[in-house]
Structure formats: C-alpha cells, structure tokens
Amino acid sequence: MQEAEGPAANSTRLARRDDFSCGIGRPCSNGACCGEGGFCGYGPTYCGDGCISNCEAVAECGEFATPAGKTCPLNTCCSQFGFCGTSQDFCTNGCQSNCVLDPAPSGSRGKVLDRVIGYYESWADRLTCHQVSPLDLPLNALTHLNFAFAYIDPQSFELVTMDPQTPASLFDDAAEAKTINSALKLFISVGGWTFSDNGTATQPVFGNIAASAANRQTFANNVVKFMNHDGIDIDWEYPGAPDRGGRPEDVENFVLLLQTLRGTFDASPRGLGITFTAPSSYWYLRWFDLPNLVKYVDWINIMTYDLHGVWDRNNPSGSIVQGHTNLTEMKSALELFWRVNIPPSKLAMGFGFYGRSFQLADPSCTTPGCLFTGGADPGPCSATSGVLMYYEIMALLKQHPELEPVHDQEAAVKYLVFNGNQWVSYDDADTFKQKKEFADALGLGGSLIWASDADDDQYSAHNGLLGLNIGHTKLSMKSFAQTPVNMAQNLIGQNGQDCKILNSCVQLDIPARTNCGVGYTKLGWERGNCGNGYGKIICCPQATAPQSCVWRGGTGDAKDCNGQCHTGEALVFKSSWGGYPTEPDGNQKQCRRGYKTFCCEAGDWKDLTDGCRWTSCGGSCKASEDEVSSLYDSSKCTVFNAHYKYCCPRPAGLYDCRWVGSQPDCPDAKCNKDEVTIALNSQGRKYDACSCKCPTCRKCQNMMS
Description:
Blueprint lengths: L11 H4 L17 E2 L5 E2 L2 H4 L29 E2 L5 E2 L2 H4 L24 E6 L22 E9 L6 E3 L7 H12 L4 E7 L13 H7 L1 H13 L5 E5 L14 H18 L5 E6 L3 H4 L4 H4 L5 E4 L24 H12 L8 E6 L1 E7 L11 E4 L11 E3 H10 L6 E3 L4 E6 L3 E5 L2 H14 L3 E5 L9 H7 L3 E2 L8 E2 L2 H11 L5 E2 L4 E2 L12 E7 L7 E8 L7 E4 L7 E3 L6 E7 L3 E2 L12 E9 L3 H4 L4 E2 L10 E8 L10 E7 L9 E2 L18 E3 L20 E3 L1
Parallel strand pairs: 5-6, 5-19, 6-8, 8-9, 9-10, 10-11, 11-12, 12-19, 27-30
Antiparallel strand pairs: 1-2, 3-4, 6-7, 13-14, 13-15, 13-18, 16-17, 17-18, 20-21, 22-25, 23-25, 24-25, 24-29, 26-30, 28-30, 31-33, 32-33, 34-36, 35-36
Helix pairs in contact: 5-6, 5-7, 6-7, 12-13
C-alpha cells in the first residue's frame, strides 16, 4: 500500500522543465534524440542528420509520435516538443493536444469522512513493542476495515496469508471486529508493494490471473468463498509498469479482471464490494485505464502520501528533504483523475499515520530543500531507517518537550528536527484539518488511513483526523468513540439491545415453537397478553447475546410496578406483564401502574469502570481523572460538605451522565435504552430525597445513568 522506490515516485516529473541539453557521452535524460546543436527533441531537426545519440527515438505524443498525433495517457497535455505533462510548459505555448492547464472536478460529490477506511497491517499482530490486533483498533470510528494483506497462491489463485508468520486465524480476528461495530465493512486488501516486487514468485500473479478468462473466473470464485468479509481491495503495484514486472496487455486485462469480479460478486448472494488502490504518481498511474476501471468498483483508494522519501536521491529533484505529503502535489495528482472525468465521490484520499525521516547533510540547514545523506536512524520499534510510526513520533515529542515542530502551512505538513541531524515530516490535527478542508472543497467521497495500527495508545492520530475523543484505552476492544451515536452503537451490540421480542404468542412447553432461528439464541420470554402457558420469545444474535438477563419489578402480589435495572445492567425491554426469567418473588401478573424491565448485564462493564471511584465527602477528582458525575448524600456527609464525585481515568468511557427521577415517588427513575445504570441513590444531586408512598414497592431511588 505504501509507495516505495521507483522512477519519478512523485508527480514532479509532469510539472518540471527537464534539462533539454545533451552532448557526446551525455545523452538526453528524457530519452529524446540528442540533436547536432546539443539539445534534446524529436523529428528531423533532432533525430536526422548530425544526431549524436538516441537517434531512433520517437516523441511521447504529437506530430513525431508513433502513430502521428498520438495523445498522452490520462489526457495530459502534449507539449509543442512532444512531451507529456501538466504544467504551463506543457499545456500552453504550442501545446498540441489536451491543452487544459488546471482541470476541475466534475460529477457527483461527497465528503471526505463519508467513508473512513482504516487499513490494518497484519504484521502488527506479531510486534513485540507495539503489538496491535484488529480488535485493538477504534472500530466504532471506522466505516471500513481493510485487512492488509492477503496474498494469492501462484498456482491455485486462492487467497492466503502474506507469509508463514501470519496465522490464518488473524482473518477471523478481523471478522470478529464486526461484532463490535455491526455497521463496519471488512475488506481484504490483496497484494501490496512487496507482493509485486522484482524477483519474487508472486510478482507475475496479478498479470497471470488477468490474462485469461478462466484464470479471472477462478480467482473471482475463490474470493467469493473466502471467509466472512464484505469486499476486496485490489492493490496491484503496478499493472503495465515495466520496472515492476508489468506488461502492456495488463492495461486492458486489469479492466477485464474487475469486470469478472463485479459480475461474479453481483451474481452471488454475498454482494461483495470492490475497490482498487491507485498511485498518486503519473509514472505508475498512466497504466491505469481509469474511465473503464471505475465502472466496476465502488470507489478508488488513492495513495496521496509517500510523495517524497529517501528514494528521491534517484530522482531529478535530488537528495533534498521534503514532506512526505504536500497539498500542491496532491492537487496535481488529483487533477489526473479530473482529466478523465472520474467523479470526486469515487475517490478516497489517503492519510498517513507515519512520517518519512532523513539524516541532514548539514545540521544547520533544516528547511525543506536542504540536502540529506540518507534515511534517519531507525525507530525503536519500527526498526527501519527512513520512516517513523506515528506512535514513535508522539513518544519522541513527549520525551523531549523542548522540541519545536514546524508547521509548513503551504504544504499542510509538519516537520521536526531532533538529535541534531534527524528530520521527519508528519501530520497531526492541524494538518489533517487542512487536508480535510481541501478534500471537502473538491467533493472527495472518503478517506483511507495507512495505517490505523500505527497510531499511539491514545488514538491521537484518529482523534486528530476525525475530530473525535476516542478513549478508555483499557477496554479490551478499545472502541468507545465519545459521540452519542458511536457509544450507543457499541452499547446496543454489547448490552442485548440487538435483541427482539417476537410478535406471536407460542406454546412455551413445545421446544420447536420457541426456537429463535439460525444465528439467534433464546434468552427468555415475555408474557404479554398471551394466556397461561404461552408467551412471546426473546431472541438475541448469538454473537452479541448477553450472559445474564432478568425481569425486574412487580414482586409478590404488588399491582404497581417500578422496574429498575441494577448497577451494571442495561435496560433492554419494558413490559406491563414481565415474563421469564424473573427475580426472586417476581411474577407475570399485569401491572396496574408502571411497568417491569428486562435488564441485562452491561457489556464490558468491568473494563469500562476499571479505575473509577467515588471520592470522599467534598473530595475532587485527580488531574489524571475525568469527573463523570457527582452525588449529594446528606446521610453519609455533613450538610455543608455533602457532595462527592465519581471519577474515572482519563479519557473516561462514560459520558453524558445524568440523574433521573422526580418527586414524589420517582416514577421516571429509569435509564433510556442507550444508557446504563451506574448508581442508585434517593437524592442524586439534590438535597430533597424521593419519598416512597407505595409501601409494597421496592425503595424508590434516583438513578444515575
């Protein structure tokens, strides 16, 4: 997924003016004919009599191309000298074709956070220093999880793990993420940079699959059969590119491959999605037949990062430090898509949760454009020169508060100089905001994160990008996004709120009648108005069914009911009848007033409240804690110092807490379905307590939720 070393790995090749001079022993760097006068070009003037070198060369485009009048890939400008490019030098002053300098996007528009695609690097599961499983990601903050990578067996064309060190069970772990966020879509990202590396057995696999109808169909069938996923992301790096083992026929065959995948997926009951990964550089993107490829995919993931790195030493731009992302170059890259009328809504823009690092040639020259001698020292965990993960950069800043990051406003990237001659560029909330505004102004339809597992334990990068406060890192799933919608989604899955009461009354002593069906389990029943021996079955998804539920309220012969869930329980259903199972002395008699509650143990309650505490009378929360709520209790504290507080480690997983219940007999002391009971008290935050007037009721108390 990350772009690595290669010719013209950024888009500057299209925007700069080449050195068009040449001579004996110094051929044209662009492959053109070296004319008698020592200048590069095409046609009889340069390639005819007196030509010094490359005399058989033909122009990329235009009059002296083969065939004559040939246009440039991706509808880029053909200059008067027969070169393809996008800057003023190419698109004006005698431009021969496609002479649009600044193309604008057209077609459907979206928002960059409409899709939030978090890539998961499968090797993160076996790290000893920053081990991350798919379930450790902030899953409720994502719309899509892309598992990177699956490989393709060169003989059977079946999807397999990328190496022997990656267990196949990791695919199952990724699929389990959907039990935490039921709306999450799991895509399998197939391929990657290393998969298509030169000299590997896997490099020709994509080309071989795409080359024949039989192979394409075999692969498509294998994908449909592969485990529990929602789609596939094809990361072929790169079709057609000669330096990556590509062949000219890859261009058309890639379209045929996606066509076969789409037809097979649409014909299957699974209805899988399709995306592909695209580079931001013209060098590689020119081999993508974008107008035909886009017909068969849900969207395109663009790698708008890794624009610069240590590989620049092989490029004409030279060994100078530059940010790995840059708004100006990102704009130029996206314009390649506008030139072939790809709608903005079909594009997801890449955000890198890492930085590219260099060793400065001169420690006194630290701004972009200064020379580097190589990659910076390896990170303590990533252990690779030239790159630092986001968690390593954040740790560096925390350990050295004296460091002063520099915000390059024009490029929308930050950089940091440390240890004298070390230089790294990275993004944070400030630069993410700039990039989001840029993307939304264009109408881009999504964002991809490479990679979600590279974030720190506080999810600083996710928070900065998404504008959330994702917290409570002690949760086993680490997925409580601090917004009402995301928290409610999580609680719904964890607390039995995906359960349902079937509409029909059934005879309870006939097992076949009380079956919930495939994928569901029975937790009990509600009496309803069904008559003796009959009831309405309560069914819950097997994957998220609570372990312990009970009907509360209406014990003994009481006619008035005030069902209240206990601490650590969540309200799932209300009923005037109740049902089974019931608390001791409970019944299935109809309530005259009020109702009974079906309460289930709140999922992850112990993790959620781990470290939380009530202060002493008049006490305060520590600086490292969040105040979740407070309580007035004159029975335990003096009237002048009767408040004490409920404190949780920051960031707290509990939010928007409130006391409910009003005088005189607290009929409304009940939590909503997207809330969980934390504590019971007859006063709550007020000095005046509830006075219970129905003697057979359980004690009426205010309830904090």
